[in-house]
Structure prediction request, 70 residues.
Amino acid sequence: GPKVAEAGMSKEEREEKGATAALADPALYQDFARAKPIMDRQRTAKDELAGLYAAWEAAQEQLGAIAEDA
Prediction:
């Protein structure tokens, strides 16, 4: 339900923010071997977030439809 999606979203948001901050460090690019997994993690976190937001919105819409029927 929405609560599970929200918990997942906050975890992925932290991952994405951490990866974004790491990627903002110019020193990282001098060590591409170190940068690559962080870039991959950021991309994965962003993709996961997109899916979770979609699931959360769908759940919210379902709740709204249920509330309207009641």
